[in-house]
Every structure is written in C-alpha cells, then in structure tokens.
Specification:
Layout lengths: L3 H4 L12 E5 L3 H13 L3 E5 L2 H10 L4 E5 L1 E2 L2 E2 H11 L4 E6 L4 H10 L1 E6 L4 H8 L16 H15 L4 H8 L3 H9 L5
Parallel strand pairs: 1-2, 1-3, 3-6, 6-7
Antiparallel strand pairs: 4-5
C-alpha cells in the first residue's frame, strides 16, 4: 500500500491567493517569534492574544489560515475555531496547545481544525501543518526538539510569565532557586 505522503504533492504558500494567517496565542514571545518567521515564509500575519481579539479579527476579515492556542487567559480557542469555520468554511486551522491529549484533539478537528500540534513548536512545523495536503497525514517533524530543549523552553516560558522573578518561578516549578539560576544562566540546548 502506498503512503499518502509520497503520492500527494505538498502545497506551497504560492499556491494560495489568500495568504492571510491569524496567530492566536497568549504566550507573547512565542506569538511574536512565530509571526516574524511566518511572514518570512510568505504569509500575511495578524496576531491576537485573547479570544476576544481573535473573534474580532475573524469577524472583520476571516483569515485563510489560522494557528489557534487551545487555552487562553479569557477562554477557549475552540470558540474561535468554530466561529472561523462557520464564516470561512475553506479556512485551514491548526490548533496549538501545551496540553496535548486525545479528547482535545478530537474536539479541535470536530470544530473545524485540520491538525493539532503540541507546544513547543517551530515555524517549519506550523508551515507543514497549514500547507499539508487535505488527504495526507502530517509527517512527523524532521528535527524534533530534544528533551533538554523542551525543558529549557518550558522553564523560560514560566520565567517570563512570572515577570522574570526567579523566586516565584522556582516556587512554581518546585525547584531550588539556585538550581533555577544555574539553568537560566546557561545557553539553550540544541
């Protein structure tokens, strides 16, 4: 039996007339980093950090592509997925979450998402998911992050969310403050 990935041509952003992409995530560093990277890849990016902002963008000009975080400070990203799917049925939506599990993946697909990616994620993974051929399965990432890199990203995310307060970050991560300081002083692992 032939693999679907080999028999179907992969899509390119140039294949689409509408290149609008909405990135909805409350993680400021991740959202801004992805926005810059996706603009370099040819997408026309709008960003939002709340369900309210996301629904506003969708209501005014529904994007062709969307990367939507599941859990946001003011609600659930599935609400935005459902609204976008109703307003623009051909939109290509990818759910993004730090809490990957099967029930939420099923709910995302039922709401109109074409794929589901767990954090941390890079721009190449997002592009591959957004541009995957509709009948193909997503390919596993070519260069997944190492376990050390995932740990480092998580620690730095919590550090930023705690307003760069070492003591508060250490308490939330249930880690000794000096251990955290050593980790924060090192460069990111590959």
């Amino acid at each position: 039996m032939k693999s679907l990935n080999k028999s179907l041509p992969s899509l390119k952003i140039g294949d689409f007339e509408d290149r609008s992409l909405m990135i909805l995530d409350d993680d400021d560093p991740l959202r801004e980093r992805l926005a810059r990277a996706m603009e370099k890849k040819g997408f026309s990016v709008k960003t939002a950090k709340s369900v309210e902002e996301g629904l506003s963008i969708v209501g005014k000009t529904p994007p062709k592509f969307a990367l939507i975080d599941l859990r946001l400070e003011d609600g659930n990203g599935l609400d935005v997925v459902k609204t976008l799917s109703k307003l623009k049925s051909d939109s290509r939506i990818v759910m993004l979450t730090g809490y990957g599990n099967l029930p939420t993946a099923v709910a995302a697909v039922k709401a109109g998402a074409i794929d589901y990616i767990a954090k941390p994620v890079d721009a190449d993974d997002v592009e591959a998911a957004l541009l995957a051929h509709p009948e193909s399965k997503a390919k596993p990432p070519e260069n997944p992050m190492s376990a050390d890199r995932v740990k480092w990203e998580h620690i730095h995310r919590v550090f930023e969310l705690c307003n760069r307060n070492v003591s508060e970050t250490a308490r939330r991560l249930k880690m000794h403050r000096r251990t955290l300081q050593r980790i924060l002083s090192k460069r990111s692992p590959r």
